[in-house]
Specification:
The chain has eleven helices and 14 strands. The chain is of the alpha/beta class. The strands form three sheets. A ten-stranded mixed sheet has the order 3-4-5-6-9-10-11-12-13-14, covered by helices on one side. The protein has a two-stranded parallel sheet with strand order 1-2. A two-stranded antiparallel ribbon has the order 7-8. Strand 10, helix 6 and strand 11 form a beta-alpha-beta unit.
Length: 369
């Protein structure tokens, strides 16, 4: 699995992001009793403490030691922006001063009591990204390093403080390619989906990949119970290469074969994510090819409007991208549905604060702490 450069974050040892067995090993190595790990784990993820001082079940000497030799908070909120549609974008600072963004998205579907049916947190997994997808603002930042599991988990814990409603869903669709930070993403997932932490259910956790074949196969072999989504965006190899350079390394036939392997091993359906670009991937031939792909295994298709990334000053092919017209967008969906494909539309939540799909690039002007 590919890794980022300079992954090691210097400073006090990080407590967050460690599943219970890892936390037990850490405390034993530092001369503490094994059972203390469960108390610290509960303090971090059930009481949701940001420091050991508030973990009253621990003896004072241990609380002082943890606060001195370790760190309990992995990210710090710098700014947040509120969209007119209820979306909140968070800018988090990491221990080494680098930054990432997360987005809290309320569902457009409302329960009888006025609450959104879902509240989804879009989580980042890397500082920047090295895949170079031409439609994604994060590509303009390049890759600095992977996030630690603690930095991934803490995005959830800090975001939850800014809403009275429980976060119900997590999507690994923020900054970075999750498969290229596989181990830390899966450690975070174990904590997110632990029933005792009451964060989110596995069926409400989705990992989205640009098509890292070894990661897909590894997820299948390990029997991971979270959902898998593929950023497809094109039905031919040449167009996909134009949009997503990673397609040159993992070509479409190999990629689809890995998804079929994943389905055979897990019996879980796949979500195809498909951004519509005018004159590039919105023809009747694209419909027909997408239908054939959708029929090869149980799938659904998430059709996504293209969101402007002009604020990153794109060049070349990226500069020429335009969203499909509303009429063509609706036509494309109808053609898929007429062929029996299960289709959903990804909303453009947070568009007014550059928080919609593909727009995360640390553009946080006007944010408030």
């Amino acid at each position: 699995m590919a890794t980022a450069q300079r992954d090691i974050v210097k400073g006090p040892i990080e407590l967050k992001g460690r599943p219970l067995p890892d936390l037990e090993q850490l405390l034993i190595e530092h001369g503490e009793r094994r059972y203390r790990a469960q108390q610290v784990y509960d303090g971090l993820y059930i009481q949701r403490a940001d420091d050991a001082a508030s973990m009253q079940v621990l003896p004072q000497a241990l609380r002082e030691r943890l606060d001195t030799e370790f760190r309990s908070q992995s990210v710090r909120l710098t700014t947040k922006q509120h969209s007119d549609d209820g979306t909140i974008k968070f800018l988090f600072e990491l221990y080494d001063g680098r930054q990432v963004e997360s987005v809290l998205i309320p569902s457009e579907m409302i329960e009888a009591d006025g609450r959104p049916r879902r509240l989804t947190l879009c989580v980042s997994t890397q500082v920047g990204c090295n895949l170079g997808c031409v439609f994604c603002a994060t590509a303009s930042l390049k890759l600095t390093r992977n996030l630690t599991a603690g930095e991934i988990v803490d995005q959830f814990l800090q975001a939850q403080k800014h809403t009275t409603k429980p976060i119900t869903n997590i999507v690994f669709m923020g900054m970075g390619e999750p498969m290229n930070n596989y181990d830390n993403v899966m450690k975070a997932t174990e904590i997110f989906t632990d029933q005792r932490t009451k964060m989110v259910a596995p069926r409400r956790t989705t990992l989205s990949t640009a098509g890292v074949v070894p990661g897909i196969i590894r997820m299948a072999d390990e029997g991971r119970i979270i959902k898998l989504a593929l950023s497809l965006h094109a039905t031919t190899q040449d167009v996909r290469e134009q949009l997503m350079p990673i397609a040159k390394k993992y070509q479409l036939p190999e990629l689809i074969e890995s998804l079929e392997y994943y389905y055979r091993k897990t019996r879980k359906s796949i979500t195809y994510e498909y951004i519509l670009f005018e004159g590039i991937n919105d023809s009747i031939d694209d419909v027909k090819r997408l239908v054939r792909l959708a029929r090869r295994m149980p799938t659904k298709v998430n059709v996504i409007p293209f969101h402007d990334i002009d604020f990153t000053q794109p060049k070349g092919f990226a500069q020429s991208l335009r969203p499909t017209s509303k009429e063509k967008f609706d036509w494309f969906l109808k053609q898929l549905r007429d062929e029996g494909v299960t289709v959903f539309i990804r909303s453009s939540s947070g568009l007014d604060i550059d928080a919609a799909c593909g727009q995360l690039a640390l553009s946080h002007e006007g944010g408030v702490a």
